[in-house]
Amino acid sequence: MSSHYFPGIKVGILGGGQLGRMLIQSGIDLNINFSVLDPDPKAPCSGIADLTVGKLTDYETVMAFGRGCDLITIEIENVNTQALHDLQREGKKVFPEPSVIELIQDKRKQKTFYQENGIPTAPFVLTENKQEVMDRKAMIPMVNKLGKEGYDGRGVQIIRDEKSLSQAFDAPGLVEKLIDYKKEIAVIVARNNAGEVKTFPAVEMMFHPTGNMVEFLFSPAEISKEAAAKAAQVASEVIQKIKMTGLLAVEMFLTHEEEILVNEIAPRPHNSGHQTIEGNETSQYQQHLRAILNLPLGDTSVRIPTAMINLLGDTGYEGKAHYQGIEECLAAGAHVHLYGKEMTKPLRKMGHVTITGHDLEELRNRARFIKEKLRVVSK
Q1: Which of 352, 358, 357 minimizes the C-alpha distance to 370?
Q2: Spelled out in words, what is the top-level CATH class assigned to the domain 10-94?
């Protein structure tokens, strides 16, 4: 990795979705060669990098793929970590480290890690099955989470009353106290192999009412300087305590008492950092590459306030994607990012839109305009 121009270096990405696509788009500026593993031959990365079709959870597939790369990274956590451990033993660089991925694959391990390391988080209890969730009715209102295989809002549900207990997950998971928060915020933090750590300014997230995924994001978050500093401190503490190399998204609650509580973490570029492409001096994708290649980390400061709108497949439409309203949004100054997904279905992430401006109220109004005008339907 000594050359500044990376001739012959091949970075392998486990996962060929939109995060990988944007990582590759950023890496082209550094002359990095990429190879991608994904089960879908039409994955978003397929048109811009060498794509190997195969299961991310299959040991032999990941081993064969990884042996053809110099460095392996991920854009999704559901991967075979045993293969990554073995590739590491064979001398391959793997960032984030396999042990970090294993920790984050299991929300039970995540929460226990926070508790054992003094990282502030919501009170919780580990549960093995549905009955154990039902036995914790005294915690209502509470959140029930699956330990494994939950993503994009799946595997998480709010239990607000005893009737809802019948919907509890019948698998190892946890219940945690539902936090009466003031805002949901996120801080993206990076750490390179030399131990340099940098945080991006906190952003504010607004979630889809039923999809449990980010619908709007505003940067920087409208919070006090003290809360912003505390959030950055907590994010830095998390990445250093898990000894991770790469980019880590730390989702948090800001309570009415100005407490910061860590909700969940993701060891890769994240939905809460898309706006950095237009809004910050360094994008989250450039920062992830700098971290895993052990380069100096970039300036994370906000260049201009931004709003990000997730472009989700419209309810009631499934099939070949058709985009309505793009021209009006481009005319309104929007930066449209489409993910190259041929097929749409309800709430599928099909793209995102970033808008910039110095008037925060105007940004919010324009974000609502984009949300109403730009729709993903099917032909």
Answers
A1: 352
A2: alpha beta
